[in-house]
Amino acid sequence: MLDSSFILIVHSYYRWIVLVMMLLQAYWIISRYKQEKKFSKIDFKILFVFTTIFNIQLVIGWLLYLNSTLALSFWNDIATNVKHRQIRFFGLEHMSMMTLAIILSNIQTYRAYYRINKKEVFKSLFKTYIWIYFIILSSIPWSFSPLTSRPNFR
Ligand code: HEM
């Protein structure tokens, strides 16, 4: 077992990097979409960098999950724990929604590779990333969240 309290701190602060990247990426996608730009090789590289930054949080998240007594305790007695908001959130909801969002981001990046030099790519990125951002933003345990709250800064 790794030191889960250390991974938790890294995971918690890395969230801010993810959020800043999401803002930058959203601005990039929307401005290129509005300018009706073709999707170039450089655009693919930029998209790839964003996805890699999200993938790092996916790996940290899974490392944390596999070392978190709170998250893993969910699987000890699913029928009872599904009724405990905090255990259910970290044991099931947060893990599955965040993994889904980052898999969708990887699928988009993979598809974009085969659409280099084509138009309409930014339109399709725009349409999918709205959902990806929504999933991520709604699955973060914000300090003000009515579902499960955690401090914004540890
Ligand atoms: C974009 C992706 C993600 C973001 C932004 C994110 C963000 C967060 C935040 C802000 C916390 C609360 C940290 C704190 O208490 O200070 C947290 C906790 C946690 N996250 Fe994530 N997370 C992401 C992906 C994942 C993934 C993919 C997994 C695992 C499969 C995961 C597993 C966990 C676990 C297990 C905890 C709580 C652990 C504990 O308290 O013992 N996260 N996450």
**Residue ranges: pLDDT <50 for 5 or more in a row?**
none
Query: Could you give the distance between the termini?
Result: 22 Å
Radius of gyration: 17 Å
Taken as a percent bin, the fraction of beta residues is: under 5%
Number of domains: 1
Small molecules held by this entry: protoporphyrin IX containing FE
Give the averaged pLDDT, no decimals.
96
What is the overall shape? elongated
Number of helices: 6
- Main β-sheet: number of strands, strand sense, barrel status? none
Topology as H/E string? HHHHHH
Query: Got a strand count?
Result: 0
Structural class: mainly alpha
Keywords:
mainly alpha, elongated, 6 helices, 154 residues, single chain, binds protoporphyrin IX containing FE
At a glance:
By secondary structure, this protein is mainly alpha-helical.
Give structural notes.
The protein is mostly helical and 154 residues long. The chain has one domain. The protein is built from 6 helices and no strands. The chain has helices spanning 4-34, 41-67, 69-73, 78-81, 85-113, 121-139. Helix 1 (4-34) packs antiparallel against helix 2 (41-67), helix 2 (41-67) packs antiparallel against helix 5 and helix 5 (85-113) runs antiparallel to helix 6. It is elongated. 19% of the residues are buried. Bound molecules: protoporphyrin IX containing FE. Protoporphyrin IX containing FE (HEM) binds next to helix 1, helix 2, helix 3 and helix 5.
How do the helices and strands line up, and which of them pair or pack?
Layout: H1 4-34, H2 41-67, H3 69-73, H4 78-81, H5 85-113, H6 121-139
Helix pairs in contact: 1-2, 1-6, 2-5, 5-6
